[in-house]
Design brief:
231 residues, Lysozyme, 2 domains, 2 strands
């Protein structure tokens, strides 16, 4: 029993070391792509870890394909339907290009806060990147386990969006939806109060801090009491 438990612990430690080494090797390029595209580095790294077994899969080793992207290849070492790349960085570049150029994913660049890795992972899954219903949760779990969000260059005052479960209002649906629609259409500006945070304001109005910053021409997320912003 003790030997079996020791083997499990050794296997888990070895896997963590493999992932840690993989992250160290690819973080710089993931961050370069993040700065150029706004896709969180944590998401880029976690998807690569998930799809390539931290670089240990046959597709990663023989084709330099770290994201499970299909296509033709000229490699004779394995028989595969996945495309090949000159190196891992090229595979990382193509992953971001797929998100930018495919209409199923490109809308995420307007809808998702660049620091909200959970929203990105779930949006990529909804876009059809993977057939598994648990894919996004697995990617998010990797981010949390290895604290990959530390590479997203979040502002010091960043607060993660609070995920609120929807409340059922079937009996009063017609009336409440009418009032909500009227309220939203009339709320075009918001006056900043002491203690306000751009992310919380965005969340409460069904948008993202990135969208609010673009609407108001803001270069930083810092706000001042009395300041008015367009919603």
């Amino acid at each position: 029993m003790l030997i079996w438990l020791a083997l499990i612990l050794l296997g888990s430690t070895a896997q963590s070391q493999t992932v840690t080494q993989y992250v160290e090797e690819h973080t710089d390029h993931a961050q370069e792509l993040m700065r150029a595209s706004d896709v969180p580095a944590s998401v880029i790294l976690a998807v690569a870890i998930h799809e390539s077994a931290a670089g240990k899969s046959k597709v990663a080793r023989h084709l330099n394909n770290h994201f499970g992207i299909k296509g033709s290849n000229s490699n004779s070492a394995i028989n595969s339907s996945y495309r090949d790349y000159e190196n891992a960085d090229e595979s990382y570049d193509n992953f971001v290009e797929v998100l930018q150029n495919n209409s199923s994913f490109s809308k995420l660049f307007d809808r998702c806060d660049q620091y909200d890795y959970a929203a990105w992972a779930k949006g990529i899954q909804r876009g059809g990147y993977a057939s598994s219903r648990t894919w996004a949760n697995q990617v998010i779990a990797i981010i949390n386990k290895y604290e990959l969000y530390q590479y997203d260059e979040r502002p010091d005052d960043y607060v993660e969006p609070v995920k609120v479960a929807p409340v059922s209002t079937r009996k009063k649906h017609h009336r409440s939806s009418h009032r909500t629609k009227h309220h939203r259409s009339s709320a075009k500006f918001y006056t900043i109060k002491k203690g306000d945070n751009l992310n919380r304001i965005a969340e409460s109005h069904g948008t993202s801090s990135k969208v609010l910053m673009r609407k108001n021409g803001l270069k930083k997320s810092a706000l001042k009491p009395g300041q008015k912003i367009k919603l």
